[in-house]
Write a structure and sequence with these properties.
This protein has ten helices and 15 strands. The protein is of the alpha/beta class. Strands 3, 4, 5, 6, 7, 14 and 15 form a seven-stranded mixed beta sheet that branches. The chain has a six-stranded parallel beta sheet with strand order 10-9-8-11-12-13, with helices on both faces. A two-stranded antiparallel sheet has the order 1-2. It is globular.
Length: 333
Amino acid sequence: MSLPTRMKLVGLDGHGGPEVLVPREAKVPRPGPGQILIEVRAAGVNRPDLLQRQGVYPPPAGAPDWPGLEVSGLVAALGEGVTTWTLGDAVIALLPGGGYAEYALADAGSALPVPAGMGFPEAAAIPETFLTVWHNVFQRGGLREGETFLVHGGTSGIGTTAIQLANAFGAHVATTVGSPDKAEAARRLGADLAIDYRQEDFVAAMHGWREGRGADVTLDMVGGDYATRNLKAAAPDGRIVQIAFLRGNKAEIDLNLVMQKRLHLTGSTLRARDHAFKAALAADLQHHVWPLLEAGRVKPLIEATYPLHEAAEAHRHMERDHIGKIVLLPDAR
């Protein structure tokens, strides 16, 4: 496959609002040992991209300085030692950064095949949210069939994925949302209970549902004052998994609740984990979730797509109310 020497990308001109996202050019990178080069056909937009743009979530050492944590596309070049992929394979990949570009480097072990029957835009919306949910809800949280699951922000990219997967694996699903329209969207995705947090206290709602058992597993992206409320809403032996903190990373919690209910409070970040961990996580996701994706039982929910050079507008869209994922598509070559 013949490669160009230059590529278009969207980088950062400092930190701040969406206006700091600017088109520019760079050399097409060449894959090192264990890497593949992907000709990007679509790139997902995620909340961490907004945080990187704002200057509060820098990329790990060695990663490109422009945003983009997930892509779909075609394998355009192979690094030394890569035998799992061939040129032209349709893949998706989780990246440490650099997805807002025409070409992106990925660790070969972090790449997965595009699910059969799925287009590139939908496929690009899989890696960040599905890997995050699988690790935190099912591996760390240990969600099992018949348990009760609570996810905050049910119409976000993470939320829509978590609702579908928890439902598909037989859990009873509750979620918090910010409007009646979002509550209806969450129910269509498989939520059994959609709580409008502007109108109702989610702790009281959980105590009034399923005989007041509470949540066996809670996935929280809010933080702040939700921390103690999550403890109150939890079932005995409940597991609370923190993956973000939109309301702040400081909280006062009642340790008596932790002790009385025998609760587990945990959390994780994915971006900085090593290649071996991400490869093992990707393999586990493929084994358990690819059959569901290929059968259409779960799928990424795409609200909007934008051409790459309009990445700033895509970020503005994400900062407004939205349901599901936002995806960038390459500019015409």
